[in-house]
Amino acid sequence: MYSAQTMEAELIKSHWIEVGDGHSLHLGEYGNPAGPVVLYLHGGPGAGCTPDDALLFDTRHWRVLLLDQRGAGLSRPRGSLTDNSITHLLGDLERVRKALAIERWCLAGGSFGATLGLIYSGLYPERVAAQSYWGLFIPSLEGMSWLYGPDGAAKMFSAEYNDFSGGIPIKGWLPLVFEYFHKGFSHPQQTLAERAFRRWLDWELSLAYPGNRLIGPLDWRSRVLAMIELHYARAQYFGAEALLHKALPNISAPTRIIQGECDWVCPAPVLEAFAPLSARLGEQIELVSVGGGYHSLADARVHQAVSRAGNWMLAMVHS
Fold it and tell me: Name one GO molecular function term (predicted).
């Protein structure tokens, strides 16, 4: 077992990788340039990476890749929704791997990043040595309805859901909810657009880390996150559920999924009801429950479990 790191992550280099369709992805490399590679997959989709994400791993040993997916973070064009789908993101991962001449790597990520990584690991099982994920999002109708409809998380957070959904004529019909926010985000009056962004982001934050709300003006990263999240939700995640069905039986890498007991964004019942995943639990895939843990990495219990999973992956690589 390897000890957790206490120093700041050392930046090896930062550059952009052209992946076609006018997109250029920002990639930051941290840690030990001679170490095994772990690719960090941010969530959202659209959240982007920050240098602190490298601190999830012991960079004395790991070569950590922080990749901003299409439109997210520092990738160009910022916030672009054109040619931005799950299929594009999966293809980008292979382009990055080939561009860096990496034969095999480890994967780690949360929420939608976990979804993306699991699909990739089933499509390219020979490329993944080990992987760890947290807060896995199941891109099914059940997962979407729990998150955005009136009969899931809304039952537990009724006041927050009313703030989110107030003004939508027919609550519970997901296409109408998404179209309502699509119009809101692009409203010509800045104050109304700002209100729509804040409602979307406040609802998600209230589930990810209950009791917290956005403070102060929104920055560009927050707006980009909301725009790309809505883009994917409106398209039902571009068939990601079917891709997950196809990929899960083919996963061969040791896999750990961390699930917070109080994760109200991607709750355990939705995850456990997803039959293709349940069929693999106890085989190649290990499910670790974190008592009292939320969805957010700001929760110390989840953060510690993710850091321990990084050490576990390192042991898998060296075994």
Answer: hydrolase activity
For residue 200 the two structure tokens come to 């979307």
End-to-end CA distance of the chain: 11
Q: Which domains does the chain have, with CATH numbers?
A: 11-139+239-318 (3.40.50.1820), 142-236 (no CATH)
69: three-class secondary structure by DSSP: coil
- For residue range 10-19, list pLDDT tens digits in order: 799 999 999 9
Per-residue pLDDT reduced to its tens digit, 176-208:
999 999 999 999 999 999 999 999 999 999 999
Burial class (CB in 10 A: 0-12, 13-18, 19+), 15: exposed
User: Does residue 217 have a pLDDT over 60?
Assistant: yes
Closest CA to 223 of 68, 78, 32: 78
Please state, as a whole number, how many other Cβ atoms lie within 10 Å of the Cβ of residue 246: 14
Q: What angle do CA 198, 201, 202 make, to 5 degrees?
A: 80
pTM of the model: 0.95
For residues 120 and 255, the answer to whether their CB atoms sit within 8 Å is no
Contact of 121 with 97, CB cutoff 8 Å: no
